Amino acid sequence: MRNLALVHRLSGLALAVFLPLHFWALGQALDGEARLESFLRWTDQPLVKASEWAVVLLLAIHLTGGMRILMIEFLPWRDWQKTLAAVAAAAALAIGLLFALSSTAHAQAWPHKPVRFVVPFPPGGATDISARLLAQKLSEIWGQTVVIDNRGGAGGGVGAVEAAHAAPDGYTFFFPSGSVVTANQHIYAKLNYDPEKDFVPVTNVVSGPQVLVVAANSPYKSVQQLIDAARAQPGRLTFGHAGIGSQTHLAAENFVNAAKINAVQVPYKGEGPSLVGLIAGDTTFAVTNVAAAMSHIQGGRLRALGVTSKGEFAQLPGVPPIAKTLPGFENTGWFGIMAPTGTPKEIIQKVYLDTKKALESSEMRARFYVLGLAPVGNSPEEMGAAMKKETALWARVVKERKIKVE
Amino acid sequence: MSAKAETLLWVMQRASAAVLGLCVLVHLGTMIYAVRGGLTAAEILSRTRGSAAWLAFYTVFVLAISLHVPIGLRTVLGEWLGWRGAVRSGLLFLFALAMAFTGMRAVIGVYS
Amino acid sequence: MDPLKVRVWRGGAEGSFQHFVVPRHASQTVLDVVTYIQRVLDPTLAYRFACRVGMCGSCAMTVNGAARWTCRTHVDKVYQKESLELAPLRNLPVVRDLVTDMREFFDKWARARGSFQGTKTRADDFEKISPGSEKRKQVDAAIECIGCGVCYSSCDVVAANPDYLGPAALNRAWTLVKDERDVEGVERLRAVAGDAGCHSCHTHMSCTERCPKQLSPTAGIAGLKREVSLALLTSAL
After folding, report:
1. How many independent structural domains does chain B possess?
2. What are the distances in angstroms from CA A17 to CA A45, B27, B84?
3. Are residues A104 and A9 in the same domain?
4. Which pTM does this prediction carry?
5. Which residue ranges make up each domain of chain C?
6. A166 and A82 inside one domain
């Protein structure tokens, strides 16, 4: 008992040193959200985390010793064994608490090094832009750099294979546009990856409609005019896209299918290059993501004829929905995070929650807004369910349009 | 110090100990819950800003600590350093005030 | 059997350990050893004893670091690694060798108001107290103290705080607080409260651990803490 009492006293002294510092530090840190945020990031350091554990241990020890004293003083126990049993019970409680803490510590230890987002398209496209915006915010939250690794080609397939083969340790994630994981399996006769087996959903980051664009000097000033021209010259009009199976390809195919016109697809190695080609006059039109087209529209290089959302799209006022010309037409593109199968559930949960948090910041919302993208941040389960529905849709369109790659 | 004053200190020490036992468990439990999936300033403040409940809880917590720690130190200073009387009392009173002040500063910071 | 190697404190507060070799017997107590040393080896050795049978507590001293009654300590129990170390009781001034000055111990007893205060005379009838009553059971659990000083000698707080009344005095005060016949009342509570009194007990429980009569001064002192707090809260203190 003497030794218990001594340990109780020493832990008390240690806490008496820690607590004033704790109060003072918090008082300083709570001088505004930014200060608190940087204070929290400081506490993410392993040394600080270790000392947090030390404090919890000290508290457990001190509380246990204190409970022993309170029990002896307020419950008239004479029996040694009873007192010891009570101390043991209190210690067990403290240990239980520590155990509960330790199971969350496992997820907290991640990330301790930079995290890689594999983007299966070259820089400049909507996928890439979305990934970079999110990566910047997540880097702030995690205190670790999130690196964008662009691997374009094969309609997103090259990046998919890269990500699928990565170790599922939570340090590599896949950041595709939706079609790479919901349509490619129907388009390609042979795929080097299995969207359903190789990846698990984490969260849908942003989604947004596409916009039907033509060059600024194009003769077509409305969706109807374009459709009429296509009907008058079947097989003559062309549309560029980011690659077979890409969102921009499928969005255009969806449009062409709905309008029942005959236009020829021209694949590029990404959205950025396809818009450059459109501006140069190499192709007639494109159905492209707002994010990629916005700067060209605002810069007067491209003209927006219609949006693929159900109704008017706030970021493009005055541009009518294609549904006005083709009733019922709608197409949404999305960009999300997936993880290689086998990635620990706690890490997936953390990435989902942190992404959701990041998307709540007014700064992020504003930046995505001007790109024509709305934050989603749904749960892995919700994303999985939505993907199931979408893949069924593309199976149908791909069949009807006879989109195939050998 | 009179028997009355000594007894009062002892009672306050034990009472604050009981209160702190509960507060510490709630505080640690809250921390475990909050840190799941990472912790951001926005998340903390969205929970505590304008919340009368958290304000009340942390005020009680801080005041209990400001009582408990100095009274505990009083014994250690007396037994291990041989300090008694006005010097000890004065120092500890100031320490209690300092803790209450810095603690409440943090509590107000999280509330407003 | 191999003879015993014994170290015995000689001197007062300043002094040193003297070595003796004592024949070993079966069923030998530490008091037997001390007696042999004084009678056969060195008549100048000073030590206390009386009953020799574990009733008076006079033979209490520090044996291998722990306070014990030497008449009730078998050598077999404490002789380890070929050494037996005898020293006077701790926390008390040393008169000479193994003898301590017990005045302070009993003075504190008096300061704790550890004596019975009654109002009845021999002309009055007996106070009828049921031995099974809660109060009497608590008194009975603590009443057997014979003032041997082992608990006082074992207490860390006594060592650190010269004013501390100590476990024996407080334990006795407790028995009187719980004695229905006693009328000292709140005066005694005032005497046992505070830095010098029950509030300095940190429940190290060395007293309870070492008491040769298996009493628990810790429990008695805890009881005093409760009584004093109650008196404070009912404004009686």
Report:
1. 1
2. 21, 19, 21
3. yes
4. 0.63
5. 4-100, 103-233
6. no
Pull the structure tokens for residue C23: 């024949």
Tally of domains within chain A? 2
**Cβ separation C225–B10 shorter than 8 A:** yes
CB atoms under 10 Å from CB of C60, counted, come to: 30
Residue C76 CB neighbours (<10 A): 11
3-class secondary structure, A159: helix
Q: Is the dihedral of CA B58, B61, B66, B69 positive or negative?
A: negative
DSSP C39: I
pLDDT of residue A210: 92
Of the candidates A5, A9, A76, the beta carbon closest to that of C222 is on: A76
Q: Determine contact, residues C18/C7, Cβ cutoff 8 Å.
A: yes
ipTM score assigned to the predicted complex? 0.94
Q: State the nearest Cα–Cα gap between A402 and chain B, in angstroms.
A: 44
C223 part of contact set with chain A, CB < 8 Å = yes
Query: Does A73 touch chain B if contact means CB atoms closer than 8 Å?
Result: yes
- Domain that includes residue B33, residue range: 3-111
Partner residue facing A2 (CB), from C206, C219, C223: C206
Q: Are residues A391 and A268 both part of a single domain?
A: yes
**DSSP structure class, residue C70:** G
pLDDT per residue as tens digits for the range A263-307: 999 999 888 899 999 999 999 999 998 888 888 999 999 999 999
What are the chain A neighbours of B72 within 8 Å (beta carbons)?
Answer: 12, 16
CATH number of the C4-100 domain = 3.10.20.30
The distance of B72 to chain A (nearest Cα, Å) reads 8
Closest residue in C to B79 (Cα–Cα):
C160
CB atoms within 10 A of CB C55: 12
**The pair of three-digit structure tokens given for residue A250, joined into one six-digit string:** 């499928």
Interface of B with C in 59-78 (CB under 8 A): 75, 78
Closest Cα in chain B, distance from residue C236 (Å): 10
